[in-house]
Amino acid sequence: MILLNFSHPLTDEQQDQIEQLTGETVSRLIEVSVQFDEEHSFDKQATALVDACDLKPEEWQQTPILIVPPALSFIAVLVLAELHGRMGYFPSCVRTRPIPGSTPRRYEVAEIMDVQAHRDAARQHRKE
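and the corresponding structure tokens:
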């Protein structure tokens, strides 16, 4: 599986947690630095951010991809939309959380969120 990280660098421990939760091996880790210019539209910047992953169209559509989304919600929304357009579905996302009582503050992997399954389940509410 390809792991696209649009957030803070992952520790070896976090990568191990991701592999345990998914049952998949991370064959490729792509770390993408997220620095947006607040004075310009985020739309083109989000496209450039995903372009920086440098994946071929067949990789977007055929390879299992997991993402660590950007922390800023405005950017994350556009990145998810861009990824959906390239992949044809929403990728699953890694959610991290602070480790209680850790000093200095450290983070662990809390869960893998199946965004496509959540979207599919939400469609049931359209019938109500």
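(Above: one complete record from the training split.) Residues 2-127 form one domain.
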